[in-house]
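Progress narrative, work stream C.
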Amino acid sequence: MATFVHETDVSTLNPPEAADPGEPARAPERPWPAGDDTPPPADVRAERDAAVHLLLRMTTVALVRIVSLLVVDLGALTAAAGLTLLVTGSFGMGALTNLAGLGAVTAYGVVLAIAANGAYGPGDPRRNPARLTRGVLMGVGASFLLTRLVGGTPAPVAEFALYGIFSVLLVVAGRLATDAVTRLVSPPFMRRHVLLIGDEDSAESVLAHFNGSVSTRVRVAGRLVHSLHDDPRADGDLGDLKAFLRDRSVDVVVVANVLPESALREVVHTAFRRGVHVELVPTVVRDSEWVIQPQVFFGCPVLEVRPSKLGVPQLALKRAFDLLFATTVTLLLLPLLLLIALAIRLDSHGPIIFRQVRAGLGGRPFTILKFRTMVFDADDYKETYSHLNESDIRVFKIPRDPRVTRVGRVLRALSLDELPQLLNIIRGEMSFVGPRPFVIEDLQLYEPHHFERLSVLPGLTGLWQVSGRSEIKDWESVVRFDQEYIRMWSLLLDFRIMLKTLPALARRHGAF
């Protein structure tokens, strides 16, 4: 005869061994993690279904991302090959033989090199100009060596170099354009739902980064804190985490605060059981001016902290764009430049071009070129009119400056006096976008945090100029704009600033 025993009676059938009187009593072991009060079978099935759903969704997103980026990259490489043939044909350079095979080998090598640099993965690395530049150059270089050493096809250096330059510019431009389009037409299935854990200030800081990067692809599901007593405006505390993950659509848990180790472990385990990723924000250096890079230091995972400045790949990409664009613009504006020169010559006595020594990259002096807008001996009267200066001594600006000529007033209002700096850009002394160069004597007034603005080439326009131009008279505000530009630099940011420069010139605000 079978005997049926209730679940609550199981412990009486198999009593535990007698414990040593000297040992503390141990709680009975549970088959699921502590703190999980739902019945194990139903909970396990729910967690399994959630994990499978998330896996399928993330796999779909990854496939769409990789295929889309491959199409964009192959289109950019094809366009680069077409431009290379056009240029080499126009200049009578040597024609490439077996073009189709050579192009296929090079494209395959470039795609593999880009993938090896992690530029097909999720997150910001896929739009990082440095990674893309490194990948393209590695692929083109490897294809060149393979063609020259193994293949029977000659590999002309000039054609490969030109193809590499065009490929870098077009691949990076294609990635930036793809990212911009994705922000505008981001489909719902590609959006990531984020649950923030942290105080209000920390959460706002993280959201500010989201808004500056991928805000249209991020939806905030809520915010939890360690204790509601400390932050009653939150949506709940860590005790509500499981309910949030069960009842709301959450793909990623972002921990924006430092949590006790036990609490952090509980968050991670709970999220993993629901198939949800966890991201930890390095709160100590979250809003600092440093660059944070994950590394492995003698086997120990660490966060490497480095000074914020553009590296060699970014500077090379920026320089290639500056040289190409400045040369084109100079040729197009040549009639206007000659007309302005004639007007200056007829209006007042003195040279057409004003030359002055300014502080460039690393504080090195260079001679900046401008159309002369003042009387030729204007510097001799600087002390005389210094009491009219309404700005910091390092931002010397006098509204209705009596030293300005009639033609100079028009040129300044339209910022046409800056056009000769196109030659500074071609010579590599300046860039289209960057911190404004000031006179070399101002360096002795710099404080330590001011020197960061000297870590890049000075610019013809910049974040400061499109944000108010001469209306911004506080030196620290100028420095903050320059630092923000350096830390957030991208080729897309340069394009945005250049596009904003035209309306700023049309409004003529702050130009005198």
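Work stream C, second folded protein:
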Amino acid sequence: MPAMTIPETQPNTNPALPLNGYRVLDLSGPIGVYCGKLLADMGADVIKVEPPGGDPMREIGPFIDGKPGPGRSLYWLHFNTNKRSVTLDIGTAAGAAAVRDLALASDALLETGGPGYMDSLALGYENLAADAPGLVYASITPFGQTGPYRDFKASDLVGFAMGGYMYVTGWPHTPPTKLWGSQAYNTASNRAYIAILLALYHRTMTGKGQYIDVSMQEAVAATTEHVNTTYNYTGESAVRCGFRHGGQFVATWRCKDGYASITTNTRKAWDDLRTWMDRDGMAGDLMDAQYDDHFVLRGEHSAHIEALVERWAMTHTRREITEFGQSNHHPWGPAATADEILGNEQLWGRSYLTTVESEDGGPSLVYPGDPYRLTEFEHPVRRPAPAPGEHNDEILGGILGHT
């Protein structure tokens, strides 16, 4: 892919960007940093407020070439594209006053302090809304602003566990397993992003801002698909299914060169699979009439069927399984590894992955984009993640009029 040069750091001015003209004050930590990125990528002027010396997230790895240091955190570089940075000590009267002035000059504020923290600084919603009734104010916390858990602390791991997702992830014979990455944090950020967009849309019709209370636990609980439904109807908790989906029509099988997912949620998909196995002489008794109903996959014969499919899958490659399934209109596909994602022609072809050249002589970096496309504009990384306080002059001077 051709490399792209980042323009000089200036406020977003492309009128085609859907959030152009909106300003967001971002005081978030790891639980909400992705929300700020999503807003910035869509054109909002997102001002990241950092403490003097820089946000602690700048010290989170992985790092460029595995070496920690200023500007080398890939975590920070990814989650803060297209933002501007200002350094303020909001624990001081002068810092809190500057944040207040910036909030009153913004359309939305995003924060992730504990319940009551922003109120203690006179920066809570009620305080700011008295002078800025159109302000959209979003708070992301582990358990929300109310309820018996409101003051509990939680990491991404705890959010994933207490949201109910961890219990059903893993193998039946192992303890509950966490998915890779900050899935609970990112899920909470996604929900906050959607809520902020809805609140801004509501404001265009009413002129009124509002307060948004996002709970990480609730955000995760909303993603558990069949888990709650199964319990509500049967009274039984869902179990960990290992390589199978909870519905048991989808499974990921080990094959010659890795793993491939095979979905048999239709009669045709099941018939095509067992017919192929039969041509290979490995179907066993699966062509018998007792297996004509594909629902037997999750019934009393499931262990027998899985043993036959497992043995057969090891005689084929991921590509063979994928091409056969896709050619017959079934959603079969390979389990991609990290290096395969980085080299995937589909992701490059849609410009989800973009190479960005460094302007200071550093290494060029591959950035992931947003997982959607709007026809009126492209999705380049318009501005890399900022250095600490990189935009102090233009924000404190240009917006607040400070010398």
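The two ends are 44 Å apart (CA to CA). No further action is required on this item.
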